[in-house]
Amino acid sequence: MNYLIGIDVGTSATKTVLFDEAGNVIASASLAYPLYQPQNGWAEQRPEDWRDAVFAAIKEVVERFDGALEDIKGIGISGQMHGLVMLDEKGEVIRPSIIWCDQRTGAEVEDMLKRMPREKWIEITANPPLTGWTAAKILWVKKNEPENYRRCHHILLPKDYIRYTLTGAFATEVSDASGMQLLDVPARDWSDEVLKVLDIDRSLLGDVYESCQVTGRLTREAAERTGLTTETRVVGGAGDNAAAAVGTGVVRDGRAFTTIGTSGVVFAHSNKVAIDPKGRVHTCCCAVPGAWHVMGVTQGAGLSLKWFKDQFCQDYSARAEAEGRDVYDRINEEVATVPAGSDRLLYLPYLMGERTPHLDADCRGVFFGLSAIHQKKHLLRAVMEGVAYSLCDCNEILQEMGIEVDKMMACGGGGKSPVWRQMLADLYRCPVKTVCQEEGPALGAAILAGVGCGIYPDVETACDQLIEEKSSTGPKKEQAQVYEKYHQLYQSLKENFKELAKM
């Protein structure tokens, strides 16, 4: 029997899972680390924390494996996208990583638009310049921390820093590289035109692979720290959403998924390049060679619920702990007692600005319609509905682009909530399904490793063999009609957000 490891370098924690070649979980480990916010709208993490978590988690799952080490054939790495990792000539981290939800780069985005027209950016990189993406962060460091930029010899993404610590290779792959704003997305390689416009030396960037190609083998040091052998291969892997697509079987046209993690995503597979000329959704290379995906992203999805829970639901947490239950199960029960529409209470989930469909770094979270009848459970339901509304905005743009979806899957922590799945089904007006396999990005990364190691012939065949549908939630007509009354509150507040940002 062959075995594979999938690693998911998330925002709150790294999860490492050991699978057998049939997709069964043999062992898993998860280790958390902090997020730092030095200023409002900023978000950073220490790459060394990711590295330490990955090495410790691999070691833990290997120690719980009772087979032969040489049977663990490969590792696939998934991870949060867009983060900037800068290394010096010795391969040491120069500064904390500026991660995906950081919004400090508004001026740099404006500078990018002055250097090249918005339409040209979309033509080459398939997306307009964005505050959360890597290119603008590189420019920010170049302008605000010139000494750090002069020391920089390598620019990597979060999961690709983990690859470097495992193999010594400076490399990336097409799905994650698509989110740097430096890749020619239709051509699946770095854009010399963009690099020239931004004055970024191509030598700073790693080699670009397809997601299931082998990028290296474990170094002797990595093998000693993890308990694996130097014959263990590491493949390209994928950005978190591209890996989640593989892990839920979204690898063919007509298939899509919604994930509610820290951020929220609506993601559709496409065998051809489909680019929104308005730049409202993101087109990237996907983990299936020769294919792409289109996705809309709401920044503060699960983050919104976690924020509200942490700040205002200590009583829920205490009661859940006393009962030996998950606090989110308690929240779901309370929310289910509130009618659809939360008694005319609305929530905008823009705690970290927004990407789809507004591309507005200045917008912020809002409760609208509060009255004396509302209880905590109404606010909780409004938060969940506000996230669902935002994801529906994303889905409507995909439909407008002619991307037909006949199979919508749900994944991520929020995808486990039957209440949230019902909201999505009502808003999408189609069934929302789950799969038996719950490992998502880690499983997707392991499947990619299996393809690279020759265990599976291709990504599609592997998904057909390993992934099984679990549940289906259909829309309820009466609730869908209630949600139709939701109006575009953002448009009414757009200018107010800009004034707030100046205060």
Reported CATH architecture of the domain at 3-248? 2-Layer Sandwich
Measured on Cα atoms, how large is the radius of gyration? Answer: 22 Å
Helix content: 25-40%
CATH superfamily of the domain at 3-248: ATPase, nucleotide binding domain
What do we call the CATH topology of the domain at 3-248?
Nucleotidyltransferase, domain 5
CATH class of the domain at 3-248: Alpha Beta
* Percent range for β-strand residues: 15-25%
Largest sheet: 7 strands, mixed
Structural class: alpha/beta
What would you note in describing this structure?
- With 503 residues, the protein is an alpha/beta fold.
- The chain has a domain at 3-248: Nucleotidyltransferase, domain 5 (2-Layer Sandwich).
Features of this protein?
alpha/beta, seven-stranded mixed beta sheet, 503 residues, globular
Write the layout of secondary structure elements.
Elements: E1 3-9, E2 13-20, E3 25-32, E4 44-45, H1 47-63, E5 72-79, E6 85-87, E7 97-98, H2 106-115, H3 118-125, H4 134-144, H5 146-151, E8 154-156, H6 158-167, E9 171-173, H7 174-177, E10 183-184, E11 189-190, H8 192-198, E12 207-209, E13 214-217, H9 220-226, E14 233-235, E15 238-239, H10 240-247, E16 255-260, E17 264-270, E18 282-285, E19 292-298, H11 302-312, H12 314-323, H13 327-335, E20 346-348, E21 366-368, H14 376-400, E22 407-411, H15 418-428, E23 432-435, H16 441-452, H17 459-466, E24 469-473, H18 477-483, H19 489-502
Parallel strand pairs: 1-5, 5-14, 5-15, 9-12, 16-22, 22-23
Antiparallel strand pairs: 1-2, 2-3, 4-7, 6-8, 10-11, 13-14, 16-17, 17-19, 18-19, 20-21, 23-24
Helix pairs in contact: 1-6, 2-4, 10-16, 11-12, 11-14, 12-13, 14-15
